[in-house]
Amino acid sequence: MSKLLSVSDLRVGFGRNPQANEVVRGISFDLAAGETLAIVGESGSGKSVSALSINRLVDFGGGRITGGSITLQRADGSFVDLTKATEPELVRIRGAEIGMIFQEPMTSLNPVLTIGSQIEESFRLHRGLTGRQATIAARDALDRVRIPDAARRLKYCPNQLSGGMLQRVMIATALACNPRLLIADEPTTALDVTVQAQIMALLAGLKRETGMAMIFITHDIGLVAGIADRVMVMQAGQAVELGELDQILDNPRHPYTQHLLRAVPHFSRGLAVRSDFRRDLAAKSDPVLKVDGLTVRFPVRGGLFGRPTGAVHAVEGVAFDLMPGETLAIVGESGSGKSTTARSILGLVRSTRGRHSTATGETIAHRGTASMQMVFQNPYASLNPRLRIDKILAEPVVAAGGRADGEMRARMIMLLKRVGLPENSLERYPHEFSGGQRQRLCIARALMLDPSVVVLDEAVSALDVSVQAKVLELLIDLQREYGLAYLFISHDMAVVERIAHRIAVMYAGQIVEIGDACSILSKPRHPYTKKLISAVPSIDRRNEDFALDTRQIPSLVHPLGFEPAPVEWLRFGVDHMALAEL
Amino acid sequence: MSVFRAIFRHTSGRIGGVIVGLYLVIAFFGMMGLTPHDALMQYRVDRLQPPSWVFWMGTDLFGRDVASRLMKGIGQSFVVSFLSVSLATLAGTVLGLTAAWFGKRWDGLIMRLMDILLAFPAILLALLVITVIGPGIWTSVAAIAIVYTPIFTRVVRGPALSLKARDFVDAARTFGSSTRYILTRHLLLNLVGPLTVQVTLALAWALLTEASLSFLGLGTQPPASSLGLMLSDSRNLMETAPWLLIFPGLTIMIGILGFNLLGDALRDILDPKTRRAVA
Q1: Is it the case that residue A104 has pLDDT exceeding 90?
Q2: Which of A:330-349 have CB within 8 Å of B?
């Protein structure tokens, strides 16, 4: 096999003194035509910077290649060192020979241009097509990425398409000129797991059809199994291990690779669920939180006077209860209403109908209560950057009418220690902490008022896998110690398997299946749950194709006064029921 | 403080900082009456003297020392600018914060009102206010404050709206924190940066507006001195005694330049979007 790309001792630095500030410190690898190399690493390991150096986009981000070479074999058989290529040369290579897909399909496309004109641009620039020819080529490109009804979709603007569809458009654009190398930088990280499976299937299929080589960057070692031929593991700017897929996954040599494989939550279809809590159905203990018929609708306004013409049925008749010491996980893809459910329980969103009550019997109006606290997804946004940690931790207590005194300070210090942070954290500001530490701070803050229920809205989703594993452990320990009930909202089935006792699956605003974690994960009954579980990647599913499915989620917008038909539940076990498919 | 050090490291910040600092010292001396001569004293024999060792910037038609009057004038202009900008900041912050937080009709009402104020040219609006309440120092303070309130309202409302959607504000709401606490701690505290920049830039404009109003005879009233008044008094003597025009003119120009340079530097330093370019 001929080498398509050969990288040797690549070094990239940033800032005024790139030599002293190296982010990539001497990586080397070869890539043959038709081969897929996966680069795996945690955030800050230099994996994206390495990839961006290959098509020299790193120059625009302030990076400098300080050493090494990147040799690309061009289509005509000549070799070019990309580290020394001039910008006009690079412009001809980018797109035509090296295509790239980015993480965020929503921000990678220009929102004011139709997707058709954006795909056509690629054909106009690199192939010199014009007018009708370009349009036809664009339509074929969309067909190639299996977008149904391509001719009509060309006239759509990006906001009219879902994230998964947009990522397909990005892939279509990147593949417009049949590049011999495709760089995919976390192409599915921003997407739901079911959509992720479809994009992965698409990439694998296209790779087979065109015989292009691919560099696939990801933090999720589970995804790698399905697509890569070889894997490179990066840590702190260096490649700690490079080898064949099977060797890396089954027989990792470097301790960091071993650590990474251990830290990644492996999804095992219900075999790894927690067994430290059993619902005692005979003994009628009172739930700490009971939600019944919760409905949230947002008005859709239209017309000249902005009168409501319809409503988005974001949450429709959600009901569940939560026992002390129990974790209920709500899973579902974005837009399924899982976050809205949590936010309306906490009074951040006004519910249209339904009631929820806590153990103390109070029905929550539109203010929070001490017995229920929340931890948010993004640790960087949930702490006020201008407040010191002691002020941040004091806030819930002050809000509940407490006084900032020695007793409160003692509790702060106790909680900080409990979540594994040093005592002197109190005098510091949020920016001095890493993402994982900030999430620990958020957990400590949520525990300041000694709540009985903690709502965790994607609380570990933004963290790196090894940090994620530690925070999950902490959450489980805290739950045992304080008898906390968790409402754990997540899209990540592998994480859910580790922490949940019970699972509720949400789809299009409704709970479609609810029951104990083991039954749901091992014997899913509702078609959507089945689809969701079959989409979860894992390292045991090597080179396995995910089925392509281009169905869209039903619209949640209904005309004013619309009431959904009453639902019918099918029971499958002691604690497992699913919605009957209509 | 790290901000002061950052200003000093920034080229235009250094220049602007030095100019503004110098003006502040001069204004202080001027207001305290620590001038080379009595600013009101008329040296009848020395009328219209060109700059000399005795009269550094010459004398005017009445034989008054230009340098002393200039110092007093800077003081006067600064008092008016600072007072009016403080008022505008206060009003704009309160209006902008509440508009962003309460939204809906209140937001609509305030922002349309501010749009109406913004639609008038600044000087015209100030003239209108003065016509209604009569000329004088306090009137010009009020007029300038009214002119700049809409700008501060807009500067506060925009970022406040985006802060309102941040998770830490949602978190505060789940604790049941009071609206006052959220507005002051979570919103206002995070707006200190953009507000500082806007205050500095507004000071430059307020200085100019005050000079213009005085020039038109609607601001500071004689015999008290002000930069605009000195310009207007000397405009008929431009050919015989150019120093009467040159020194106040240069003073206004350099002062505004100083505030603008400082404001630009502060924007570079405090605005997180450009912070990386400086560091």
Answers
A1: no
A2: 343, 346-348
> Which CA distances in Å does B185 have to A393, A553, B106, B154, B176?
13, 41, 22, 20, 14
Nearest residue on chain B to A379, alpha-carbon basis: B167
Token duo for residue A424:
């002197």
Whether residue A373 contacts residue A396, with contact meaning beta carbons closer than 8 Å, is answered with: yes
| Rounded-to-integer distance, Cα A301 and Cα A521, Å | 40
**Which residues 346-365 of A are in CB contact (within 8 Å) with B?**
346-348
Rounded to whole angstroms, the Cα distance separating B151 from B95 reads: 11
Bridge partner residues of A231 (DSSP): A38, A243
Q: Are the CB atoms for A235 and A573 separated by under 8 Å? A: no
Q: Cβ distance A72 to A5 under 8 Å?
A: yes
Strand partners, A218: A40
- Please list every residue in chain A whose beta carbon sits closer than 8 Å to the beta carbon of residue B176: 367-370, 399-400
Please tell me the least confidently modeled range out of A44-58, A84-98, B33-47.
Answer: B33-47
Question: What does the DSSP 8-state code read for residue A340?
Answer: H
Backbone angles phi, psi at A332, to 5 degrees: 160, 165
**CB-nearest partner of A348 from B174, B185, B190:** B174
CA distance A466 to A468: 5
CB contact under 8 A, A382 and B168: yes
**Which residues of chain B make contact with A369, given a CB cutoff of 8 A?**
176
Closest CA to A375 of A422, A339, A421, A425: A339
A-chain residues near B185 (CB < 8 A): 384, 387, 391, 395
pLDDT higher than 90, residue B54: no
Q: B218, exposed or middle or buried, with CB in 10 Å at 0-12, 13-18, 19+?
A: buried
The confidence band for A180, taking pLDDT boundaries of 50, 70 and 90, is confident
CA angle at B59 for the pair B57 and B61, rounded to the nearest 5°: 145
Closest B-chain CA to A378:
B167
A151: three-class secondary structure by DSSP: helix
Nearest partner of A237 among A464, A10, A467, judged by Cα? A10
Query: Between A and B, how many CB-CB pairs are < 8 A?
Result: 67
Is the pLDDT at A271 greater than 80? The verdict is no
Q: Is the pLDDT of residue B116 over 80?
A: yes
d(C-alpha A582, C-alpha A568), whole Å:
9
Q: Alpha-carbon distance B23 to B253, whole Å? A: 12
Whether the predicted pLDDT of B226 surpasses 90? no
Written as six digits, the tokens of A157 are 């603007």
What integer is the mean pLDDT of B160-182?
87
DSSP of B19-70: HHHHHHHHHHHHHHT-SSS-TT---GGGTTPPS-SSSTT-B-TT--BHHHHH
Is residue A305 classed as helix, strand or coil in its secondary structure? Answer: coil
pLDDT > 60? residue A292: yes
Inter-chain touch B189–A384, beta carbons under 8 Å: yes
**Cβ contact A373–B170 (<8 Å):** no
Entry pTM: 0.78
Place of tokens 């990005």: A170
Residues of B in contact with A372 (CB under 8 A): 174
- Euclidean distance between CA atoms B170 and B160, whole angstroms: 14
Write the DSSP string, B168-209.
HHHHHHHHT--HHHIIIIIIGGGGHHHHHHHHHHHHHHHHHH
Q: What is the pLDDT of residue B276?
A: 42
For A375-392, letters b (16+ CB in 10 Å) and e give bbbbbbbbbbebbebbbb
Give B-chain residues touching A366 at CB under 8 angstroms: none
pLDDT value of residue B275:
46
CB contact under 8 A, A368 and B174: yes
